[in-house]
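User: Hello! I'm new to structural biology and keep hearing that structure can be predicted from sequence alone. Could you demonstrate with PadR family transcriptional regulator? Please show me the input and the output so I can see what each looks like.

Assistant: Of course. The first part below is the input, the amino acid sequence of PadR family transcriptional regulator. The second part is the output, the predicted structure written as tokens.
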Amino acid sequence: MRKSGPPKGLISYIVLELLAERPRYGYELLKEITELSGGHWEPSYGSVYPILYKFEEKAWAERIEREDEPDRKYFALTDAGREELAQKRKDAGGRARDFADVILGFYHVYVAFATDDRFEIHDGAGWCFDETYSAWIVEQMIRHHERDFGEFDRIDLTPEEFVEQYGRPDEAEE
């Protein structure tokens, strides 16, 4: 179970990957990360800039000057940064469960707001917590799945049956 927010190290990993493509500045990284999330998540300046400064301190990235944009602080990945990225790529493979926990956790809270009498949430800004909006959210997930992976096939297994059939390699680490 996750305690809060995106999986630890997610933003650092994404920043390393984006810097591996080409030098970038902070706001550009924020826009790219927001775009990766389909516009549904935007990290704060307070999360990206400290990462860039940490990368600079650890010699994973270096500031570069650009004559065409002298006021912007561009960062480029160093050889040490590429080595760190190679390690982060290995580490990221074990984070799928963290992602699933975040997605499912927030969905469960959404449904609790819709169905649990302890919450008296008023509709706002055209959105509400109900069955119709819940179905729309699930539909969007299916559409994205089909766009990225092909036809969606339901998996009619309980969580326990799923783990038994497909396993959870990350459970051995706990």
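User: So the tokens describe the shape?

Assistant: Right, they're a compact way of writing down the 3D structure. Reading them back into a model, for example: The chain has a mean pLDDT of 87.
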